[in-house]
Amino acid sequence: MGLQEISRQTDGMSAxxxxxxxxxxxxxxxxxxxxAAQALELxxxxxxxxxxxxxxxxxxxxxxxxxALPGLSAKxxxxxxxxxEASGVVQPSRRAE
Length: 97
Description:
mainly alpha, 55% helix, 0% strand
């Protein structure tokens, strides 16, 4: 999803509506189409970059990510993973037990 499309989705929304929107719909818009601005759109939320770092080391289970990042709640981890998945940064996979 491009930055302009995200901007169009959130244009005209009130602050209250943005606060209630799903995380991947209520993004900041940096008014800049450069790669750095797009990276901030995808990874700018707190914990997102650290979660991505953990996943760069290889596939991880939900609880493995939580254990590697002390202070990260299950709720925030779920939200960030949903946002990263919606952005196409991560893809969920099933691992054998």
